[in-house]
Specification:
This protein has 354 residues and is α+β, with helices and mostly antiparallel strands. The protein is built from 8 helices and 22 strands.
Length: 354
């Protein structure tokens, strides 16, 4: 039997978890840790294994190999499978899954077993106050807004004081404005109670807004896990890089000065990524600078020249696609007042990367 984790702050410890659904390998040697008070968002395309992993933690799926421990208890693996109701896990689903024939208070108290009525009422009142629905306990789910229903589902999941809260696409059914509002409330609430949580989402904005760390899942395994800032800056490969928006891949070479260079000039060692394809620098549109090619400019003399191919207004700035003279295309964001148009000759440099 695998030894239990020794870190007392570790709430979820999954090691080398595998699961097949017939011929489909849903989880493939997947490992992930979640610490107390931490929100980890699982991010990846449909079918990559996110929901299967969540269900494995909850005990709704029996894994084929590997181990899952919750706190100091082994709950899956080595011939053991602890039932979902005995795992101290809270679940929040996309459709909220509230009982339509029960009041809000009865829904919140549904998972409270083994305690007296007075204690149960006190706990329900505490949870409703926590989610700002203290005056809605007598109502029924059909009398609530989408955001209120989501908060009731959250209160119900938190009422038994679970070791970890699992959220499966919890905001997918909400309209965009309400989605942002509820998402912010959920993050604040989870951090206030200090609960560990694992979030499954297809939406990068949900993951960025909620996750203290993001775990990128591909083909049933974690390919990279880190804070959103570090994933954005240091993606492990181009597939992860694309999840965080537009970029230009600049191949790196070593110049006569022994420094690393790209087509736009020298770069610092700490911005170089060692991808499977070789060393590259990831240039996001906001990290590059543009100046008129034949005018006086503060742009580095080593900057490359090229022609503006397209100009796109994107609301807060203008995005230029520039064809450099050496054949490389780069994407740069400039201010709306910059005045560049298709056909302009420009110089492009990388001041934030040098």
């Amino acid at each position: 039997m695998s030894s239990l984790p020794t870190d007392e702050n570790l709430v979820v410890c999954a090691r080398n978890v595998s699961k097949r659904h017939g011929s489909v390998e849903a989880l493939n040697d997947m490992s992930l840790d979640v610490k107390r008070g931490e929100i980890v968002a699982l991010l990846g395309p449909s079918g990559c294994g996110k929901s299967t992993f969540l269900a494995s933690i909850a005990g709704l799926v029996r894994i084929d190999a590997g181990t899952i421990t919750l706190g100091d208890r082994l709950v899956s693996g080595s011939g053991l499978h602890v039932a979902p109701q005995d795992r101290r896990v809270g679940l929040v689903f996309q459709d909220h899954a509230l009982f339509p024939h029960k009041t809000v208070a009865d829904n919140v108290g549904f998972g409270l077993h083994g305690i007296g009525r007075a204690e149960r009422r006190e706990r329900v009142a505490e949870m409703l106050a926590l989610v700002r629905l203290a005056d809605k306990g007598h109502r029924y789910p059909h009398e609530l807004s989408g955001g209120e229903s989501q908060r009731v589902a959250l209160a119900r999941a938190l009422a038994p004081s679970p070791d970890v809260l699992l959220l499966d696409e919890p905001f997918a059914s909400l309209d965009p404005t309400l989605r942002v509002e509820v998402r912010d409330e959920v993050r604040s609430l989870l951090h206030s109670v200090g609960s560990a949580a694992v979030l499954v989402s297809h939406d990068i904005e949900d993951a960025l807004a909620l996750g203290d760390r993001l775990a990128v899942i591909r083909a049933g395994r974690v390919v990279q896990v880190d804070t959103s800032e570090r994933l954005h800056r240091y993606p492990v490969d181009e597939q992860v890089a694309r999840m965080f928006g537009v970029y230009t891949e600049l191949p790196v070479t070593v110049g006569p000065d022994k420094r690393a260079h790209t087509a736009l000039g020298p770069v610092r060692d700490d911005v170089i990524l060692h991808w499977p394809t070789g060393p590259v620098v990831l240039a996001r549109p906001g990290s590059l600078a543009v100046a008129t090619a034949n005018g006086t400019s503060t742009v580095d003399d080593a900057a490359a020249t090229g022609v503006v191919r397209t100009r796109e207004f994107i609301g807060y700035s203008v995005r230029l696609e520039i064809a450099l003279d050496d054949g490389l295309d780069v994407v740069v964001d400039v201010t709306t007042e910059s005045g560049y148009v298709a056909g302009d000759r420009v110089r492009v440099s990388n001041p934030s990367l040098a």
